[in-house]
Amino acid sequence: MQLQFTEEQLAVRDAARDFAQNDLLPGVIERDTNQEFPAEQVKKMGELGFLGMMVDPKYNGGGMDTISYVLAMEEISKVDASASVIMSVNNSLVCWGLEKYGSEEQKEKYLKPLASGEIIGAFCLSEPEAGSDATSQRTTAEDKGDYYLLNGTKNWITNGGNASVYLVMAQTNPELGHKGINCLIVEKGMDGFTVGKKEDKLGIRGSDTHSLMFQDVKVPKENRIGEDGFGFKFAMSTLDGGRIGIASQALGIASGAYELSMKYAKERKAFGKEIAKHQAIQFKIADMATTINAARWMCLEAAYQKDQGQNYARAAAMAKLYASQVAMDVTVEAVQVHGGYGYVKEYHVERLMRDAKITQIYEGTSEIQKIVIARDVLK
Ligand code: CAA
User: Fold this and answer.
1) How far is Cα 235 from Cα 363, in angstroms, rounded to an integer?
2) Which of 150, 198, 204, 227 to pair with 76, CA 20 to 30 A apart?
3) Cα torsion 184, 189, 191, 194: sign
4) Measured from the CB, is residue 239 less than 6 Å from ligand 1?
5) How far is CA 40 from CA 36, 45, 87, in A?
6) pLDDT for 181 beyond 90
């Protein structure tokens, strides 16, 4: 494993850091308060190549490695986790799956504009009654010869309102269980497809999370990804990479809160000296630094394994499990370090604390990560 980042990786990290400071930081509190989608910033992310980072340049991607993706995700998440989940879903759950398993026609038609950021995509697996238990899909895709007739409801869909392309998992042959599930590419504007209510969330409030309704939507057969019945494996394998993205997001949220805590602790005085000189604060800072370092290595290990073509499912689940716990622990302590100031919006750490929680829930709860890890360890 390389111990030194390449010049290219460092350049990506620096570009992401500049973008976060210059374009995301201004207005981040207002966007959170008003649940405002960062449309302008997402457009710029596309221009900078952050929305299709790992996609082959022949499909308008950046041709970068997963290590660069982790570095960029960390920097962007330090400042705005709403922007970084939009980025993570587009990169990991939409572009990656399309590039890996899509047909040449699908890549030309959908991957190219998604990778350039001209449009963004959404990954639609969760349903009102199928969250962790993802095989229990109630959405149906009835085979009608030339097309599938799609019916059902999806819940908690990131980018739900702003996406143009949706990868929708649906059951075609219920008697086959998970082997009867397909993944269909659905376009916004197809007859019978409506975007439902926007969720009013605890955190990542700048990202839009919606339910989606499909009523007799005719989806052409050529919009199925992979062979008939490949949809569940498509979703599971896509989520393996998605977990590296969310682990890096959690890492970034923790790093952001840590950096703010360091700055505050060196400025704020109590009992005649900076609070950073009090052991009570030093212990917290030391715990933050140590656990963030471990989480960073776990994210990089999973990314490295992916870049090397190794099986990274376990490492990705471990990174997500650990980094999301670190994000929670560090942000709670960051609020404590800031005292009363930590409890108000201006100091950012209360938002980071709210944002941290979702990293233990989406793309598989912490309990799901433990199942994935245990099954792999015990096999
Ligand atoms: N890659 C490829 N195939 C896989 C796989 C993987 N990582 N994991 C499992 N499979 C295959 C299995 O090999 C099996 O195939 P065979 O029957 O041919 O052997 C099949 O899938 C079924 O696997 P399991 O028996 O392990 O399935 P299960 O019902 O026990 O569920 C689970 C496994 C890990 C719990 C899974 O259901 C899961 O990951 N649930 C969580 C779903 C999730 O993460 N949802 C998040 C929604 S997306 C989101 O949050 C995005 C967003 O908006 C930010």
Assistant:
1) 10
2) 198
3) positive
4) yes
5) 11, 9, 13
6) yes
> Model pTM greater than 0.85?
yes
Q: What torsion, rounded to 10 degrees, do the Cα atoms 317, 364, 168, 89 define?
A: -60
User: Smallest Cα–Cα separation from 143: which of 223, 212, 211?
Assistant: 223
- Catalytic sites, residue numbers: 363
Locate 216 and state its tokens. Answer: 């007799």
Question: What CA–CA distance (Å, rounded) separates 105 from 102?
Answer: 8
In the reported structure, the alpha carbon of residue 166 is separated from the centroid of ligand 1 by a whole-number distance in angstroms of 19
The verdict on the CB of residue 268 being under 6 Å from ligand 1 is: no
Q: Are 166 and 124 in contact (CB under 8 A)?
A: yes
What is residue 136's three-state secondary structure? Answer: coil
C-alpha 316/C-alpha 85 separation (Å) is 16
Alpha carbon distance 53, 115 (integer Å): 7
300 half-sphere exposure, CB direction, 13 A CA radius: 15
Cβ proximity of 349 and 261 under 8 Å: yes
* 184 three-class SS: strand
Query: Residue 167: which residues within 8 A CB-CB, separation 6 or more?
Result: 93, 94, 97, 98, 121, 122, 123, 124, 183, 184, 185, 186, 225
- Encode pLDDT of 60-86 as tens digits: 999 999 999 999 999 999 999 999 999
CA distance 48 to 42: 10
Nearest atom, ligand 1, residue 133 CA:
37
The better pLDDT of the pair 130, 338 is held by 338
Q: In the numeric block, which tokens belong to residue 125?
A: 């697996």
Cα(204)–Cα(207) distance, integer angstroms: 6
Joined together, the tokens standing for residue 367 give: 């309990």
The answer to whether 274 touches 261, Cβ cutoff 8 Å, is no
Residue found by looking up tokens 């709403």 in the block:
82
What is the residue whose two structure tokens read 């650990």?
Answer: 322
Residue 371 Cβ inside 6 Å of ligand 1? The answer reads yes
Output the six-digit token pair for 220.
Answer: 């052409």
Phi then psi for residue 55, to 5 deg, are: -75, 145
pLDDT at 104: 98
